[in-house]
Amino acid sequence: MSPSKFQENAVILENSNYRGDYFLITFSAPKISPHVLPGQFVHLQLPHSPELLLRRPFSIYNTNAEAGTLSLIYKAIGAGTGALSILPRDTVVNLLGPLGQRFPQATKDQRIIIAAGGYGCASTYLVAKTAESTGLCLLGARNKSDILVEDEFQKTGFEVQVSTDDGSYGHKGRITELLIPALDAGNGDTVVYACGPNAMLAAVGRLCMERDTIAYLSYDMEMCCGVGACFTCVIKRKCDSPDGWEYVRTCKYGPVFDAREIYWESDKSN
Ligand SMILES: Cc1cc2nc3c(=O)[nH]c(=O)nc-3n(C[C@H](O)[C@H](O)[C@H](O)COP(=O)(O)OP(=O)(O)OC[C@H]3O[C@@H](n4cnc5c(N)ncnc54)[C@H](O)[C@@H]3O)c2cc1C
Ligand code: FES
């Protein structure tokens, strides 16, 4: 393991319901916390649950290096996240991290657009918090209760726009309907950071590439080992092979990829 990755018995300081099925958990994790870069994740081993053998990956939403803490936002959707949601304060949880490649940092002159679908806000918040410039943050979700940490993004100085599929909050429609005018208002100096469902990432990637705008996309693929050993988490990346693509492990070489690296289904006909 490289020196910047640690296995740490972290202690839960807070694990509370944020809203609906979403929870905010904060750990004391002084080994991992100071090394976290925007877009990285931890692989979490559920304690006292031998049936939940595999670790679960979660983006690192926020850190406080001085206090030695890190926070995650997670949606309770299954056995692992359900078990996580009932762990009380002071429970010890083994974390492996920080894992994966960071979102590359924008320069001071670049205008940043963040596009976060659902809990994609967890992977992109540190981009806004650590940015040298400000920009626009687009938060998209199915409905109002899936719009998370809007206030936190606003506190970073980013303008925040919201879209919901059902129109219960903000613009009624897809996040891409907010992204298009935002991209078109720029003058080529924009860099886009996105995390959300794969279909959203494909749409964001296509819109950005059509406009020669750099887009970094963070893929939440299902993962097993989290460290590059098992090939559970692959996506197709362009290469010089006869097929024009190769499988790449998102846990090790991602989860963040430049949209231009991805082999899109539309590339088949090229
Ligand atoms: C790099 C990375 C970052 C992530 N960050 C977050 C985060 O910040 N917040 C958060 O809530 N979740 C995040 N996830 C997803 C999270 O890891 C899964 O929701 C979790 O592992 C599900 O575990 P479970 O045991 O509760 O669900 P299971 O019982 O294993 O599965 C329940 C359902 O969720 C689906 N599922 C399982 N894993 C994933 C996944 N990786 N992506 C999409 N669907 C999945 C299953 O197919 C199934 O339909 C991230 C995943 C990755 C790879
Ligand atoms: S999860 Fe095992 S290689 Fe990525």
What is the CATH class designation of the largest domain? Alpha Beta
Strand content: 25-35%
Bound ligands, each once: flavin-adenine dinucleotide, FE2/S2 (inorganic) cluster
The profile of the biggest β sheet is: 7 strands, antiparallel
CATH architecture descriptor text of the largest domain: 3-Layer(aba) Sandwich
Order of helices and strands: EEEEEEHEEHEHEEHEHEEEHE
Backbone shape? globular
| CATH T-level fold name of the largest domain | Rossmann fold
Mean pLDDT: 95
- The number of distinct structural domains comes to 2
> Could you state the CATH homologous superfamily of the largest domain?
Nucleotide-binding domain of ferredoxin-NADP reductase (FNR) module
Distance between the termini: 40 Å
- Whole-angstrom Rg: 18 Å
Give start-end ranges of low-pLDDT stretches.
none
Strand order of the largest sheet: 4-3-7-1-2-6-5
Class per helix and strand makeup: alpha/beta
Total of DSSP H or I helical runs spanning 4+ residues? 6
Give the proportion of residues in helices.
Answer: 10-25%
